[in-house]
Write a structure and sequence with these properties.
The protein has about 725 residues and is of the alpha+beta class. Helix content is about 20%, strand content about 30%. The relative contact order is 0.09.
Length: about 725
């Protein structure tokens, strides 16, 4: 619900549990007033206070009032070069050479439904569940309008933000910075949580108190990156899973981003989030509009866990567009770690036969099926089936897979090109390369210039022919290197700062075409695993390969960090062979299965080499997953322990929305002699209900949450148990 109060000139945005308020100052500056737990309709502008502060200049509209300064007042969208010396949200470069931006309120509008962003991902929903606030600001000197867009999804406690910049003048306007979100908070006694890491160890939480100055996370790699994720949290210093005020902010963007927080001189904090201004410029000709990517905010007064669950519900229901919504996704097997590039039809069919006998439902053919592709040094860009490897092509292989009772999926990497490829030999200028410089190679491959439509059309035409040739129901869309040498032969020198963003828009356009032309195909995103795990990709790919690291113990940490924003159903998670390829660790098959079940479940090993005992275990795992998929994928998620802290075990829990069923997963660490008795306190249950716990009798919900459940003693390293709880009627 959005309410405008004319006497105070305030706009108040209400969700089910939160309130957000902004106000128009007499100078025309739009101020941020409040964001926090829900309040009754009220004018909170009394929270805004003023004083004459040295070295904080006053705008012309303030007249002789030296107490009002852009440098000290909280703003909805911070400006640049006109008296506010904190983090800016926008920066213009005008024809005179000025790089300032000065915005004043022009008009506002409240309307039903959700605003739209052309060519960009965004949360969606029916007109009856969304409201939009549009606040138009104007810079008269720049002859530009900046429209702040707010979407309110009341039932989900979600507020979305975006910005449209229009050139309303007669000459060009150049954008050098355009953030999606600015949030000014009147306090700095907060912690900032970012999610960082590296390839094969993504989204590890890092928590630190705000300090004077600027703290930030971001990417200039052309993708949101393994190293930093476009999701951050600001929270009370004492906030934990169950207590404290928390603000979560997610950018729905898959390219270069920046999330920066500045602690100001008067102990306040400003969060600015959007496209990274490094390597970014955008020229607007008269009448043209630039759309900033959408950002989404959640506020929770009940700790980090509730903040996560609010994001999970909104992402599942109003961001992900999944043809299998409300249905179980197929259990898959991927041939990569079983065969790598060395396969033929019989080797693939042997794996598929074993998979079908064990209850697997989808066979995925990974890298090596196309072009001249016997290793990762050639073939990318030539998306034709290698009939030397696969006689008869996919037209023969896919039906043979289908005859075994499995559907068929395929790996692709459309954004890349190998120099040893027919495509590159014909069109070397189609790769991103700076004239006069030798290219930097990643995985011995270059990146196609997806800012150019003719390149996208060429690649898409190849993919369309392949996908039309066989009954393909799943595509894994990969991207295996960061961008460097970013220069486009199709743009003039003064517009090269647009290439990074145009490439991201090109990827989105390709994925939307794929979704439109092949609505039956489930697309899984991948970027060397989790290098592009963000809200932008989830709009097009309802699940993303969480990490190339398939070790069960490392995955506990990776999936834990990912869960702070992203729901379980979006995380691709597979059982792989041991010793693990990435770190050599040996973990029990049962443990690997329990870890992978808290994701989009599958296998990545040679099932034909498994022992009878291992096959029996796999069959049980698949049966368990199929029986409990709804609880695993759609239940409310509770982090019971932190795997980054030394402890005897890692535990998490999924609870059905009606609280009548729960599944508790526990993975123990290294074995020790004379182990103490362990008690695990559960969460999210109905304290007045009684629950049957797998073979352990009936327990009260209050007892399980406040006294705890006695964990069984285990022997051996990295053992795991699952506890299934069902409410029983007295």
């Amino acid at each position: 619900m959005i309410v405008y109060h004319e006497p105070s000139r305030t706009y108040t945005l209400h969700t089910k549990h939160t309130t957000y308020q902004l106000a128009v100052h007499p100078t025309g500056v739009v101020q941020h007033v409040y964001y926090g737990p829900r309040l009754r309709d009220c004018d909170l502008t009394g929270l805004l206070r003023y004083a004459d502060r040295g070295f904080s200049p006053n705008p012309e509209e303030a007249g002789a009032d030296r107490t009002f300064s852009l440098d000290t007042t909280p703003q909805e969208y911070s400006t640049c070069g006109v008296g506010d010396f904190r983090l800016p949200s926008i920066e213009f470069e005008l024809t005179c050479g000025s790089r300032t931006a000065d915005l004043r309120y022009a008009r506002g509008q409240i309307r039903r439904g959700k605003y739209a962003l052309e060519g960009l991902p965004a949360f969606y929903g029916g007109e009856e569940e969304w409201e939009t606030l549009s606040v138009v600001l104007r810079d008269d000197a720049a002859q530009a309008e900046v429209e702040l867009l707010y979407g309110v999804l009341e039932e989900y406690d979600l507020i979305t933000r975006s910005v449209l910049v229009r050139n309303a003048g007669q000459g060009p306007v150049r954008l050098c910075r355009c953030a999606s979100l600015c949030l000014d908070l009147p306090r700095s006694d907060l912690d900032m949580v970012t999610f960082n890491g590296a390839h094969m160890m993504e989204r590890c939480p890092s928590r630190a108190p705000l300090r004077p100055g600027i703290q930030s996370a971001g990417s200039v790699r052309g993708a949101s990156s393994h190293q930093h994720n476009p999701f951050v949290i600001l929270c009370d210093r004492e906030a934990n899973e169950d207590y404290g005020l928390c603000y979560g902010a997610m950018l729905l963007y898959s390219g270069n981003f920046q999330a920066a927080v500045e602690t100001g001189q008067f102990e306040n904090a400003r969060l600015v989030m959007g496209v990274n201004p490094c390597h970014f410029t955008w020229t607007l000709e008269p009448g043209e509009v630039f759309s900033a990517p959408e950002a989404a905010m959640v506020c929770s007064e009940a700790g980090l866990g509730e903040m996560s669950r609010r994001f999970h519900r909104a992402i599942r229901d109003r961001l992900v567009r999944d043809r299998l919504r409300g249905r179980r996704k197929p259990v898959l097997v991927n041939n990569w770690e079983a065969t790598y590039f060395d396969f033929d039809p019989e080797k693939l069919l042997a794996i598929a036969r074993e998979a079908a006998a064990l209850g697997v439902e989808l066979f995925v053919l990974d890298d090596g099926w196309f072009g001249k592709r016997d290793d990762d040094n050639s073939g990318l860009g030539d998306w034709q089936v290698n009939t030397d490897k696969l006689p008869g092509g996919l037209e023969a292989l896919a039906p043979a897979i289908n005859d075994l009772g499995l559907s068929f999926g395929l790996w692709v990497e459309p954004e890349m090109v190998s120099e040893d490829s027919d495509l590159y030999r014909a069109h070397p200028d189609w790769a991103l390369q700076v004239p006069g410089r030798t290219p930097a190679r990643g995985r011995n491959q270059l990146v196609l210039d997806f800012s150019r439509r003719e390149i996208r059309d060429h690649i898409y035409a190849q993919l369309h022919r392949v996908l039309s040739s066989a009954p393909v129901t799943y595509v894994k869309w990969d991207m295996n290197r960061s961008l460097s040498g970013v220069w486009s032969a199709a743009l003039p020198p003064q517009r090269q700062g647009e290439v990074y963003h145009r490439c991201v828009l090109g990827v989105y356009e390709m994925l939307e075409r794929l979704r439109t032309d092949f609505p039956e195909i489930l697309v899984e995103g991948c970027c060397g695993g989790g290098g592009r795990f963000d809200g932008g990709m989830l709009y097009y790919t309802p699940q993303i390969w969480c990490s190339d690291n398939t070790d069960a113990i490392d995955r506990l940490r990776i999936q834990y960090g990912t869960s702070f924003c992203y729901p379980v159903c979006t995380m691709g998670a597979h059982v792989s062979a041991v010793p693990n390829e990435q770190n050599g660790r040996v973990t029990p098959l049962e443990t690997r299965g329990i870890a992978a079940m808290s994701g989009a479940f599958g296998y990545e090993l040679d099932l034909s080499k498994c022992t009878p005992e291992e096959k029996a275990c796999i069959r049980r795992q698949i049966e368990t997953y199929k029986a409990r998929w709804e609880l695993l994928q759609l239940g409310d998620y509770y982090r019971l322990t932190d795997p980054f802290r030394e402890g005897p075990y890692t535990a998490w829990e999924q609870v059905s929305p009606d609280r009548r069923e729960a599944l508790v997963s526990v993975v123990f660490g290294g074995a020790r002699a004379v182990s103490p008795f362990r008690v695990l306190k559960l969460k999210g249950l109905d304290p007045g209900a009684r629950y049957q716990v797998d073979g352990a009798g009936c327990w009260g919900g209050d007892a399980l949450m406040y006294a705890g459940f006695p964990l069984p003693a285990v022997k051996g390293d990295y053992q795991a148990v699952q506890l299934h709880l069902t409410a029983v009627d007295d």
